[in-house]
Amino acid sequence: MNKNLISILDITKTQMEDIFSVAKAKDKLFEKNYNTLSGKILASLFLQPSTRTQLSFQSAFLKLGGKTIGFSDINHSRSGPPYYEPLDDMGIIVSNYCDIIVMRTIDATYMDDFIKGTSVPVISAGSGNIEHPTQALTDLFTLTDSLGSDLSGINILIIGTPRQRTINSFLLGISNWKNIHVHILCQKGVLLMESITNKFLNKIEVSYYASFDDFLDCGISNQISVIYMDKIFKETYFYDEFVMTSTQLYQNFTPDTIILHPLPRTKELPKYFDEFPGSKYFTQAYNGLYVRASLFLSYFIS
Length: 302
Ligand code: CP
What we know:
alpha/beta, 9 strands
């Protein structure tokens, strides 16, 4: 594995599958690896808020026998006011005190600057709006756990503003499988970032729909294997048009359609989705613990 995990493309499909095969053991993973990370220290730097990612990384490290240090507000470090220590200096300094770093930044350039100074592995817990690689690992693990290891040929419906780090990493990650067709339901003219689509050119077919009716007109709703939802940013004008009613959900999709959402939810994912048989977003968050534990083991066990 590359020293740092900043993009989901920093790991190969084989490495991803190895991580999944260890994560599959769930709690037995911790029984088998009790104290494996004894003596190791994780620096956990969440410079942007997090519930799931932060706590699952920390919990995984502790359950494997390691210890964690860190801070979650740059203003409580010397890279905040009044000194604004350069982030590459911070990377040099933090590397002295730990064996591995997990970091989330509000701006992707902060991550780029920080890793210029580090000498221990850095795992991104989300960098600006560019990538969230361990969310993609968790998403893809949840899918392979439900649909089997070969995701080739599936149709995916994405509902949400498609310029988000979760969607970026998910698409780059799933481009490891063949013949993926992604259908994106969003306001007309709001497109995936070109810097991302350039990385999966010819590997994923992308279709855009400006309304739910447009999508239904294409007649493939019963062939959708996965609905990947994420936040619909309020600045997209037709916010309410993309919130599926319960009737639309049950009438148009088969009950085994997997629904993923990285959470936290906003208006796009009403509570009535929770009763749908294929809703997996709480399982997805639960799986994050095992996927991140397995990822740590991949760094420390050769
Ligand atoms: N999915 C996700 O990144 O959630 P948090 O922001 O709570 O970590």
